């Protein structure tokens, strides 16, 4: 009998894709988990317990070891910079981090950049030797250039609908995003069999999905 794995799962748009991937890998995750409002869900069929977290908090739970592993977007990993192992690229929830602004945007001195990702944005402009003022917002980032709060924004683009419907343009892609499987450093050693077994089940499913896309 393998050890119980505590898994920090992101509530919301990634969860459905993650649970589907786990099911395809042969883990018996009941369908009810997709709609549940419970925050701690026992999944004895898969020898797991899901901790339903706000996506941005997943690396925190994993770093502190209250979850052994977690599923999290690369965007959150880059922003949070937590001390965790990144084990697998799950290939789900594919999108990108981009610099966005009005289509007729012109460079200005010390522009203001609004974003949910202040660390990612600061690093990006610093590496380019550009001085910017970063303004942290928590949502509806696309409003910022429309109402004059910021010259540009750094945000996630998935389908592109939000920028299109708001008459904005994508100026530059910073990096592409997919969800990752991460592990707590101690759990990775102490529960290595269970974690390795999960990776071994997931890997062929991820590879097959990639091949189907190519
Ligand atoms: C995210 C992101 C963009 C949008 C991109 O926002 O911040 O606004 O999705 O998706 P699209 O390219 O498919 O339109 P989210 O829906 O998480 O809401 P928020 O604005 O409250 O952050």
TrEMBL record:
Domain ATP phosphoribosyltransferase catalytic, first and last residues per copy: 54-203
One Pfam family hit: HisG
CDD domains: PBP2_HisGs
Entry's Gene Ontology BP terms: L-histidine biosynthetic process
Known pathway: Amino-acid biosynthesis; L-histidine biosynthesis; L-histidine from 5-phospho-alpha-D-ribose 1-diphosphate: step 1/9
Gene Ontology CC, one term: cytoplasm
SUPFAM superfamilies: Periplasmic binding protein-like II (SSF53850)
Keyword line: Amino-acid biosynthesis, ATP-binding, Cytoplasm, Glycosyltransferase, Histidine biosynthesis, Nucleotide-binding, Transferase
Gene Ontology MF term list: ATP binding; ATP phosphoribosyltransferase activity
Domain of life the protein comes from: Bacteria
Catalysed conversion reaction: 1-(5-phospho-beta-D-ribosyl)-ATP + diphosphate = 5-phospho-alpha-D-ribose 1-diphosphate + ATP
Record-listed E.C. numbers: 2.4.2.17
InterPro entries in alphabetical order: ATP_PRibTrfase_cat, ATP_PRibTrfase_HisG, ATP_PRibTrfase_HisG_short
Compartments, record wording: Cytoplasm
Keyword Transmembrane helix on entry: no
Family, per entry: Belongs to the ATP phosphoribosyltransferase family. Short subfamily.
HAMAP family associated with the record: HisG_Short
Database matches in PANTHER family: ATP PHOSPHORIBOSYLTRANSFERASE, ATP PHOSPHORIBOSYLTRANSFERASE ATP-PRTASE
Function: Catalyzes the condensation of ATP and 5-phosphoribose 1-diphosphate to form N'-(5'-phosphoribosyl)-ATP (PR-ATP). Has a crucial role in the pathway because the rate of histidine biosynthesis seems to be controlled primarily by regulation of HisG enzymatic activity.
Subunit (UniProt): Heteromultimer composed of HisG and HisZ subunits.
Note on domains (UniProt): Lacks the C-terminal regulatory region which is replaced by HisZ.
Name this protein carries in UniProt: ATP phosphoribosyltransferase
Organism: Paenibacillus validus
């Amino acid at each position: 009998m393998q050890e119980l794995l505590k898994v920090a799962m992101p509530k919301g748009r990634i969860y459905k894709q993650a649970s589907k991937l786990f099911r395809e890998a042969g883990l018996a995750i009941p369908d009810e988990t997709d709609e549940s409002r419970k925050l701690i869900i026992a999944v004895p069929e898969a020898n797991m317990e899901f901790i339903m977290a706000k996506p941005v908090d997943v690396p925190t739970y994993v770093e502190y070891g209250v979850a052994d592993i977690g599923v999290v977007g690369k965007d959150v990993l880059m922003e949070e910079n937590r001390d965790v192992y990144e084990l697998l690229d799950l290939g789900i929830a594919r999108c990108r981090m981009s610099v966005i602004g009005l289509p007729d945007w012109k460079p200005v001195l010390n522009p203001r950049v609004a974003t949910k990702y202040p660390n990612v944005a600061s690093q990006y402009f610093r590496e380019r030797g550009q001085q910017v003022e970063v303004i942290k917002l928590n949502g509806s980032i696309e409003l910022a250039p429309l109402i004059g709060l910021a010259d540009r924004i750094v945000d996630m683009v998935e389908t592109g609908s939000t920028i299109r419907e708001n008459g904005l343009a994508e100026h530059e892609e910073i990096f592409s995003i997919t969800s990752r499987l991460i592990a707590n450093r101690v759990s990775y050693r102490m529960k290595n069999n269970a974690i390795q077994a999960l990776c071994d089940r997931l890997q062929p499913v991820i590879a097959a999905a990639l091949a189907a896309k190519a």
